[in-house]
Amino acid sequence: MTEFTVIDDTIEFEAACRALSAGTGPVAVDVERASGFRYSQRAYLVQVFRRDAGVFLFDPPALGDFTSLQAAVGHLEWVFHAASQDLPSLRELGLTPNSLFDTELASRLLGREKVGLAAVVEETLGITLKKEHSAADWSTRPLPEAWLEYAALDVLYLVDVRDAIATELEERHKDEFAAQEFAATLAQPPRPPREDPWRRLSGLHQVKGARKLAVARSLWNAREEYAQEQDVAPGRLVPDRALVAAVLADPQSKQALAAEKAFTGRASRAQLDRWWAAIVRGREESVLPRERVHSDSLPPARAWAERNPEADARLKLARPAVEEVAQELSMPTENLLKPDFLRRLAWAPPVLTEAALSAALAELGARPWQIEQTVQKILDAFVESMQQPAEGERLES
């Protein structure tokens, strides 16, 4: 069995970059984070493979500066499996590909039932990968040898998989579909910060009243601040359910908070002063959060018949039409066209012409190939919906 080592000093790093620069073909790239253990989504291991160069495992916290690696391979095509998961962490390191190939996304376009890395490698190459360390704490140092082997195998076969899948895409006339999807993935801007991120607290729906919501917000902010200080995932300090339990219990003293059995977690008692101070701040807040938050999300489809019957009729005809196209192309419907795009188009369509619908889909974010495959079906469905009697008329007749 090959032994893999982590490159954590400048001399080895520069030598690895020279080797990768002298290799041939695209580079396979993967990232290991410590989600669920650390506060940040930073990379704790970067794996790179290139033919005629080999596999290299880089230690980002130890190395810091990845300029030489970007210079060595930045102009090449990078092969990922689920690129959107790794690109943000790589960009934090100054690592950005010129172009990419995503074997997971390509597998979806080909209609494969299982698209995890192990399943794709096995179906494509007949090689079985073990995936037992995917949820490990990759901030651990030193990293166990078994983990390093797992990490290396994540990139070792990826270029071979890429070549086989690229051939299949061409044979099935889906190579242009994939090219547009890969370009869109690479061009995807970073997600903007969430407004009121504390509202994502699991179980917050149980909290009623602006004052108690202010306490929940204060506790969430206190946990975020401490988690960032400690570089620990917030939920490992105090779980969401424990914060919500503290709000609902409405303790009148620090001792009462300490006695709350549902207020658990490794930092619940050790940082009791912190949490009690947060509760007090929340109770004294002068600016209270809104109890109802405006959202641009559409009503659930089950409510459309009553709230917007014309839109309901459009959606009920267009959705199966798009699903039929997806079946013909042997791919999941959501990869042919995001369901949210179709819902928004049905809820408030433009003028019913192919050009207007195409422009509306493009504005929503649909790729040209998706528009080409679906717009006529959607137009036909929308026009047909206008020719059908309304639900009430059918019942009366």
The name of the CATH architecture of the largest domain is: 2-Layer Sandwich
- Biggest sheet record: 6 strands, mixed
Helical run tally: 21
Q: Calculate the terminal CA-CA distance, rounded to whole Å.
A: 76 Å
Radius of gyration from the CA trace? 26 Å
Shape label:
flat
Report the uncertain regions.
none
Name of the CATH first level of the largest domain: Alpha Beta
Widest beta sheet: strand line-up: 1-4-3-2-5-6
Question: What does the model show?
Answer:
By secondary structure, this protein is of the alpha/beta class. The chain has three domains: 182 residues, Ribonuclease H-like superfamily/Ribonuclease H (Nucleotidyltransferase, domain 5); 88 residues, HRDC domain (DNA polymerase, domain 1); 96 residues, DNA polymerase, domain 1 (Orthogonal Bundle). A six-stranded mixed beta sheet has the order 1-4-3-2-5-6, sandwiched between helices. Helix 6 crosses helix 8, helix 10 packs antiparallel against helix 12 and helix 16 crosses helix 20. The chain is flat and about 70 Å long.
TL;DR of this structure?
The chain is of the alpha/beta class. It has helices at residues 10-22, 60-63, 67-73, 83-92, 103-109, 117-125, 145-156, 158-171, 175-187, 210-230, 234-237, 240-249, 254-258, 272-284, 304-307, 309-329, 333-336, 339-347, 354-364, 368-387, 391-396; strands spanning 6-7, 24-32, 45-51, 54-58, 77-80, 99-102.
